[in-house]
Amino acid sequence: MKRLFSCFLFQKRPEDGLSAPRRAAFWLWNGLLMLGAALALGLLCLMLAPAQYGWELFYDYFAHPALVALNLLPPVVLMALLFGLTGRAWLAYALTALPVLALAAANAYKMFFRDDPVIAADLLLLGEAGNMAGKYQLFLFGKLAAALACALLSAALLALLARGRPRARFRALTAGAALACAAALAPLYASDQAYQDNASEEHINKWSVTQQYVSRGLLYPFLHSVKDAFPRPPEGYDQREAEGWLAQYEDAAIPEDKKVNLVGIMLEAFTDFSQFEEIQFSQDVYAIWHALEAEGYSGALLSNIFAGGTVNTERAFLTGVADGNYDYRGDAPSYVRYLKGQGYRATGSHPSYNWFYNRQNVNAYLGFDSYRFTEDYFGPVYGADPVLNDDGFLPDLTRTVLEQLEQDAPLFSFSVTYQGHGPYGDRECWWGEPEDFFTNPGLDDASRYILSNYLGSVMATQRHLADMVDAFRASDEPIVLVVFGDHKPWLGNGNSVYHALGVTLDQDSREGFYNYWSTPYLIWANEAAKAAVGRDIAGEGPDISPCFLMNVLFEQLGWTGDAYMQAADQCRAQLPVIHSHGVRLTASGELTAQLPPEQAELARRLLCLSYCRAHQTLR
């Protein structure tokens, strides 16, 4: 060992008089050892990134060199910075490995327990993370043990072999270069386009938010999520101002004698194509829906999404937030929680996987007592793989709701269907023949099959929805049903079927805007519910944003709602649609992006209230 350290490569600083090549070799030796250790640390993180998804995803990373580089660069840059600050390779490595491996371990455990990766926003909720960890039994798994052992070995080897301690000037240059490199890389890590382009999607489900994250490694998607941890507030946002607006109102109680059971259902991609004169229907595809509308209170939602992004409409309804596209990471205020505060039980179902839009976690954050998915109910009970269609789901939901009504507390049930989810087959008709639904000439076979498969699906959904209504109609318990579509359906790549039909999607026109964004909503009440609230609940409702649907429901029931709903109602009275693309619908029916100052201030106020509510984590 003594002879080893007598070699110039293992000294703390090259001796005076040492030749220039040997001096260069000394610093190159130290630099390569540190670089190797930092790269190995990045590889350890990649090894831990897939968690329960196994080695296959790890091997997939290496088919994408740019993705590997994006995951290995952060520990290299961080270690260079820390070496410049400390002058000791082993210490710089240890200070790099500690947070990096802590992140990797936390991510792995969170994936194991909840199939939910660690993102930057989680660092703002360390209390909630601690509470979560306390609910689970942590264990030392093989990959983590190997990673910790490798890290300890690397630190020891650096302490023995990379002993060079540069002078202060060189250290300052090293730290400065590392900071400059970090600044230069920051736009790349924040870029949504780069994030879209760099993924190893060969063996993942592209619909899974978690698997999309895992397909990009760990350090890269984590750093990409930093910008979302601090979302940009609306122009002129002031939290104290927003809280002051809310303070002008108080949560209003629901009178005991007016409490009715609420059943909400969001139908996947459900919309009323009878509005399109371009379709030559061969039968009344929407007869059942129109009959239900005649019994209830109905209107149009102007959603913020098209052909995807289901959760935006869903969470706007549940929270009242103008744009529902928030990934909640902790207990949050919602209308679900308001109803629970009024003595309601909150349950729901989605006949697909619990990782879709992270519903298994977010629904709990929003206040649901329980929620059923394929993994824990529809799979074991019905053998649903991967989903249960409406012929099984809606009868099951009907039975479940009626059983829950036998309990003392009133019920708030909210469910999301899966049937109707695109894409729709373009080679055969699943519901008969295309001519059973429409007779448009000139459509190519792919377009005919896509459209007929969509129309056959919505017809089937309506039949089972009508059966549910019949069951609720016969019940002595007061039941109010609110049903709505989340977005217009996908109809071919590039909206090919819409174009083939001649349906305009030009959003600069009122017709095109509605064709692109509108879906129907319906509020229906049985006789017991009408008697309880003393209202008929029938007629034509306003066109509204999804964030106002709960407001309209409460208005029909004669309820006032919580402070947030009352504040939002001030905007809804004049601007019933606040679209995420900047378009507003005024109470007089004008669709515009330019508002007079007074109305513009109302729109800003709602967006500020929404931002405040979406980012308010309950303690």
Q: Biggest sheet, strands in spatial order?
A: 4-3-5-1-6-7-2-8
Radius of gyration: 29 Å
Shape: elongated
Quaternary state of the chains: single chain
Count of alpha/pi helices: 26
- Average pLDDT works out at 89
Query: Fraction of residues in helices?
Result: 40-55%
Largest sheet: 8 strands, mixed
Distance between the termini: 57 Å
Number of strands: 11
| Uncertain ranges | none
Based on secondary structure, the structural category is alpha/beta
Strand residues, percent: 5-15%
Structure description:
By secondary structure, the protein is an alpha/beta fold. Helix content is 51%, strand content 8%. The strands form 2 sheets. The protein has an 8-stranded mixed sheet, sandwiched between helices. The chain has a 3-stranded antiparallel sheet with strand order 9-10-11, with no helix packed on it. A hairpin with a 5-residue loop joins strand 9 and strand 10. It is elongated and about 95 Å long. The mean pLDDT is 89.
